[in-house]
Amino acid sequence: MSDAAKLSLTVLQRVAEFLDALPENDLVDLAEGRASITFYRWGEDRPVKPAKAPRRTAKPPAAVDLAEVREALATMDNREAGRKRLAPLTVATLRSLAGELDMGGLSKETKARLVDKIVERTIGYRLNSAAIRQL
Hints:
Strand content: under 5%
Low-confidence stretches: none
Helix content: 55-70%
Mean pLDDT: 87
Number of strands: 0
Oligomer: single chain
């Protein structure tokens, strides 16, 4: 265990001991946001102001080569492989792919339905056609 992890565990133990000594109504106030815990450095009379957490910005999704996805789907011979290939794609990417496949009217579909419809349009049709030809 790293020194930082050991130090964190020690701090958590002290916080737990402090909370254990509080009356239940104070714990309820803390839990419901009506009370707070303030940190003072040793020998100082002003509380420490917490640093603001850095603002998280969503990183843009990685660019997806839709032509490569279409080609991959065209070579697959089972629906489950197609679902696995499409699973990591975003809804926006799936809608773009559906548009490239001339599949209109899917703007309100869920991700799962988009995946299923794309798989059926690409892999399912081919498999169904092959099965019919064998009859």
